[in-house]
Design goal:
With 160 residues, this protein is of the alpha+beta class. The protein has one domain: Glutaredoxin. The strands form 2 sheets. Strands 4-3-5-6 form a 4-stranded mixed β-sheet, covered by helices on one side. A two-stranded antiparallel sheet has the order 1-2. Helix 1 links the parallel strand 3 and strand 4. The protein starts with 8 loop residues before the first strand and ends with a helix.
Length: 160
C-alpha cells in the first residue's frame, strides 16, 4: 500500500505512465468508467464539471474498468475513440484497471481504504463510483455510482 496517493503510478490510456504526483495540488475527481453501462451518460456530466472547474484546479481522472457486467470490453483505442466521439471527453483517461479483488489497482486499494462505502464496506459496487480528493490529498469523499456529476457541484465548490 502506498503511503501517499501521489506516489501511485498510473498508465495513460494512450500509453506511457506517470504518477498521481502530476496532479498534486489539484482537486481530483477519480471515477471508474465503462462505455456500455446504463450510467455511461455520466461522461457528459463529468466533462461538463471538468470544463467548468478545470481553470480553478479540478481534474477529472477516468479509469475504465471491465469488472461490472463486462461493460468495458474495448481496447484502449476503442475506449478513447468512444469517449471522444460520444461525449467529447477531454479530461485525462487511463488504462483499463481492476478496482476490486486480488488484481485491484493500487490507486483503488488506497481510495477504498481511505473512503469506505455504505456500512463500512470497501468494495466498489458498480461503474461510475466517484472519489473526490482534496488538493492536499488528505480528504477523500466517496459517492455512489448513481450520484450524478451535477450532484457533486456543491462539494466541488466547497473544496476548491
Amino acid at each position: 500500500m502506498s503511503s501517499s496517493l501521489y506516489d501511485i503510478e498510473v498508465e495513460h490510456l494512450a500509453g506511457g505512465s506517470t504518477t498521481l504526483g502530476e496532479y498534486a495540488g489539484k482537486l481530483l475527481l477519480i471515477v471508474n468508467t465503462a462505455s456500455q453501462c446504463g450510467l455511461t451518460p455520466h461522461y457528459a456530466g463529468l466533462e461538463k464539471l471538468y470544463q467548468t472547474y478545470k481553470d480553478r484546479g479540478l481534474v477529472v481522472l477516468g479509469f475504465p474498468c471491465n469488472q461490472f457486467g463486462a461493460q468495458e470490453p474495448g481496447t484502449a483505442d476503442e475506449i478513447g475513440a468512444f469517449c471522444t466521439k460520444n461525449y467529447g471527453v477531454s479530461f485525462p483517461m487511463f488504462a483499463k484497471i481492476e478496482v476490486n479483488g486480488d488484481g485491484a489497482h493500487p490507486l483503488y486499494k488506497y481510495l477504498k481504504q481511505h473512503a469506505k462505502g455504505i456500512l463500512g464496506t470497501e468494495a466498489i459496487k458498480w461503474n461510475f463510483t466517484k472519489f473526490l480528493v482534496s488538493r492536499d490529498g488528505e480528504r477523500i469523499e466517496r459517492y455512489a455510482p448513481t450520484t450524478t456529476p451535477e450532484e457533486l457541484v456543491k462539494d466541488i465548490e466547497g473544496m476548491l
